[in-house]
Structure formats: C-alpha cells, structure tokens
Amino acid sequence: MTESPGKSRATPRSAVQLSPIDVPKASDVLVHDLRERILRGEFPEGTALPPERELVTQTRMSRTTVREALRILEVQGLVRIRAGRAGGAFVQRPGRDSVASSVSLLIRGRRIRLAAVLETREAIEPVCAQLAAANRTDDDIKALKAANAPIEDPNSSLAEFLQANVDWHVAVATATRNELIAAFMIALSQAIYSSTENESFIDAEVRRITARAHRSITEAIAKGDAVAAARRMTRHVHSYAAAVTEIESRTEIAVPDAG
Amino acid sequence: MTESPGKSRATPRSAVQLSPIDVPKASDVLVHDLRERILRGEFPEGTALPPERELVTQTRMSRTTVREALRILEVQGLVRIRAGRAGGAFVQRPGRDSVASSVSLLIRGRRIRLAAVLETREAIEPVCAQLAAANRTDDDIKALKAANAPIEDPNSSLAEFLQANVDWHVAVATATRNELIAAFMIALSQAIYSSTENESFIDAEVRRITARAHRSITEAIAKGDAVAAARRMTRHVHSYAAAVTEIESRTEIAVPDAG
DNA sequence: CTTTGAAAAGGGTCTTATCTTTGGACCGCT
DNA sequence: AGCGGTCCAAAGATAAGACCCTTTTCAAAG
User: Fold this and answer.
1) Which of B39, B107, B111 sits opposite A108 (nearest CB)?
2) Residue A87: which pLDDT band, with cuts at 50, 70 and 90?
3) Consecutive H or E run containing A171
4) Residue A80: which region, alpha, beta or left (left: phi > 0; alpha: psi -120 to 50)?
5) Strand, helix or coil for residue A6
6) Do B105 and A181 count as a contact with CB atoms less than 8 A apart?
7) pLDDT confidence band for A254 (50 / 70 / 90)
8) Which of A250, A204, A255, A210 lies closest to A232, judged by CA?
9) Which terminus of chain A has fewer Cβ atoms in its 10 Å neighbourhood, N or C?
10) Buried b (16+ CB within 10 A) or exposed e, A169-187
11) Between residues 30 and 49 of chain A, which touch chain B (CB distance below 8 Å)?
C-alpha cells in the first residue's frame, strides 16, 4: 500500500471518528430484557410468562423471534418450556445442573484428561469437607449416612454403588452450605462418574475401602471436626486419584486411542 | 376402591409397568447428533457446517427446526454463527467462557453472596498457585509479570487496576496447565470482578498491598516453590476476603436493599 | 490504483398454516 | 361411582415460503 510519506495511517478524508457500533439481534434484545428481569427476581420462580402469541402482540416481534428468545432462555436454564394446554414458559432459577452441563461440555470438548479432573477434585473437596464439618445441619448428616448405606452393602450392584458414591459426594457438597462450591463439586462428581462407569477396577476391595473412608469422613463431619474431615478427605480422594491414574497410564499404552 | 384384604397399595389391575417415555423434539435430535459429532472431534475446530438451507434439504427438517438446533448449539458454545456471505455456523470447542457464564448466572440467579464466592476462591486458588508453581512455563511467568505491571504502577486507573488484577489471577490459573481448574478460577475471578467493580475501598493502600502480594507469589511460582506459593496465595485471598466481608457486613446494615 | 456499485451468498425476520400435545369437560355405559 | 370414549380448546412444535439485512466479492468506472 503506497502511502504519502510521513503518514503511517490510512488517509482519513474526514476528521469524524466513530467506534464500531454493535447492532444486536432482535431476539437477543428480548433475551436480555427477560433475563435481567428474571435474575432481578421480578418474577418469582414458577411464574408463567405470557404465551408466545401473546408475547408477539406485546413485543410486536414475530413469533420466530419470540420463540428463539425463549429457546435461548431455556438452554440457559432460566425458563422451562412445556407443550400442550396450560403449557408455556415457566420461570426457573438456574441451578447446579447448568454449571454441571457446561463443565461436562468443557471436559468432553477439550479432551480434558480424567487425571486433570481428579486433580481438580483433590483441590476442592478437602476444603469442601472442612466447610461441611463447620456448617452441616442434622439433615445433612442423615443424607450422608443414607447415601453411604448402599456402599456399605456388599450386595448392591455396581451401578448402585457408583450412584451412591455420587450421592455421598453431593451430600458432602450440600453440607457446605455454599451453593457455589457445591455446584462445582457436583459438576466434578458427575464428570468423574461418567468417566468411571465403565471402569472395571472397582472390585470388592475398592468398595470396602471406599465405605470405610466415607464412614470416617462422615463421622468427622458429624462431630464438626473440620481438620480431621479435611485430612481424611484429602487422603480419600488422593488415593482414588492415584489408583485411577495408575490404571489410566497402563491403558493409555495398551489402547492408543481409536478416534 | 374395594381391595382384597392384606393389600395396602392401590389396586394395579394389571401387572405391566411402563416408565414414562420421553419423545424428543425434532430439533433436539438434530442438536444431539451434531453435538456428539462435534465433541467426538469429527469436525475440526473452525469447520463450517452446511448452510441452513442445505441442512434443510439434507435433514428434511424445516428451516425453523434447523435454525433452532443451531441456535442451541451456539448458546452451548459449540458453534459460532456469523451472518453475511461466507457466514454460517462454524464449529467451536467449548471454552472457559461458557463455564464462566453459567457460573455467573448461578450466582446472580441464586443470589449467592459475595462472601460465598470469596470462600470458594479461598478453597481453590491456593491449590492453583501450588499447581502453577509445579507446572508453569517461562511464558506463564512472563504473563504473570506483565499482568502485574499496571498493578505496580500507581498511576493506572481503577479500571486498569481491576482488569490487571483479573488478568493476573487468570495467568496463575493458566499456569496450572489444568484447563478445568483454570476454567473454575476464571469464572470466579470474573464473578468477583463484576461484584467489586463499584467498590470504593480499593485505595492506594490496598493497591500497594496487592502489588506486593502478587509480586511475592509470582516469585514463588517462578522459583517453583509450590509450598510458598500456596501459603502466600492463601494469605492473599484470605485477607482480601476478610476485607470485603467486613465492608459487606457494614453496608448490608446501612443499605437494606432497594429491591 | 482507488472508488464505487452491483451481485451473490448467507443468516435474520416475518407471515401463515398445520400438526401435536395436553388438560379438561361432557357423555354415556356399566 | 367408575370408567372409557369423544370432543374441544389452548399452547407449543413444525413447516413452507417470502422477503430483509449483512457481508463478501469482484468488476467497472474514474
């Protein structure tokens, strides 16, 4: 590009300067409006938004646009949409599930190794146990013990064992009384669950060890002994991670990936 | 309903039992198909999906349905859609951003207190620093130092300070070489940033202290001293949380919410 | 060589119509 | 009283087509 000497920028030809102006899509405007109002708490949970055709007349947008906006809100977990008579879009507050699903997408999409997931759990869950010991209610203790029952039972199936395992970890997370850290832990637990459900190394021995660890951690939480809870949880998740990592390193060599 | 004595349940009248059958929507089927193929890595990142009208003929679905599916994938961060010639849906692997935004929705929607967010950071970031010290590359150190420059500079604006603050924490997270824990930390940092941007307690003193803490943590990470990095980070985030909590408890009484 | 303007390829929006699902009301038989 | 059958109405789901708006490309005009 030959330019007049001394000038390194393109010729302006006019002094006025405008910054790029972003024109949002119609549906995004509606999404933004509704989302803000929902998050602001303007509509209590369960409130029905007006039916699509009604929103069309109110907003003077096309039905396509309105539907698109509602669909986006649905994916973001802010409304639940049901078909049929008395159906419609019902306001919902976003829950742990939406975090869990985006974490799941992250893990699958970026091929995050199970080792990294377990490392993350090792980072979070001990503190989780510590907070749980400090903040747990009696109901939390009940939930912990209930979740541990199928784990103690040597007759439960593998699926039951795994599910109960998740339940127990979720119960610990819930007992922290910190919804955010709980959401993280739940996302992790589910991710680990779905990566592990086909693992065969979970034999009777592993189950016995798991049951014992859970029991002792539950006790510490029940007693409000934060230090012991954290220490025991550290050991528990670390030994689990070590076991999985060891398996993984062996299978990685054996099966160099099919995809 | 007269029942035969000895039975306490409702009369079945038939032994057959069916579980609820879920009939997926057409667009969900398409979403599922595309999502699996994207996550499986069948299309490398940046691949253009066929244009909408083409997908219509291929799938024999209506354009509405196809568009709805694409929109869902876009919200989930799996494709990016651009208008205009050479536009279309381009495959994207989900990133930290989608986790961050769902966390942000969770926090806002469930009214999670800043204290809980800070508590979560206290749980995660020390381990983050520890992992960073163990795994950091030279580029990570460069990024850390670069991010800390505007913080050391007493002439930078508040906005610059806050942005640099986020950048530094993100750099620590990145240095862990664990994309999952990094995604969590980034989500937290952004959430804390947007809750803090209007806080006025960030005076010159706070900035000096922050700069010093960041510098010493950066050094520990650079030296690979995981223990020191974790310890210093613990102190850093804890003192910050304590300061904010103290402010929050005062303002909560002063301003009982405008609704 | 630059400017300008049209064409082309896409997504975005609107309209209208039809299909499907769901809840409820009524009705008639047993 | 209970139970199946029929019908209706409300609401979302899907379809088809027209048209609009953006962006890119490219060639003609200056």
Assistant:
1) B39
2) very high
3) helix A158-175
4) beta
5) coil
6) no
7) low
8) A210
9) N
10) bbbbbbbbebbbbbbbbbb
11) 38-39, 41
Q: Quick: pLDDT tens for B152-195.
A: 888 888 888 899 999 999 999 999 999 999 999 999 999 999 98
| Contact (CB, 8 A) for A161 and A151 | yes
Asked whether the beta carbons of residue A123 and residue B124 sit closer than 8 angstroms, the reply is: yes
Predicted pLDDT of residue A218: 97
Strand C atom within 7 Å of B89 CB? yes
Other CB atoms within a 10 A radius of the CB of residue A84 amount to: 6
**At residue A201, does pLDDT exceed 70?**
yes
Nucleotide nearest to A66 (CA to C1'): C13
- Chain A residue closest in CA terms to B115: A178
Only one residue has tokens 């034999």, namely A203
Query: In angstroms, what CA-CA distances link B149 with B144, B217, B234?
Result: 9, 14, 22
The radius of gyration computed from the CA coordinates of chain A, to the nearest angstrom, equals 26
Estimate to the nearest angstrom the gap between the alpha carbon of A4 and the chain centroid: 57
Please give the angle made by the CA atoms of A163, A167 and A168, to the nearest 5 degrees.
120
Contact A96, A187 (CB under 8 A): yes
Residue in chain B closest to A91 (alpha carbons) equals B109
Among B80, B89, B70, CA closest to B30:
B70
Query: If you measure CA to CA, which chain B residue comes closest to A92?
Result: B109
**Cα separation, A125 vs A172, whole angstroms:** 9
Q: Quick check: pTM over 0.70?
A: yes
Confidence of residue A196 (pLDDT cuts 50, 70, 90): confident
**Cβ separation of A106 and B98 shorter than 8 Å?**
yes
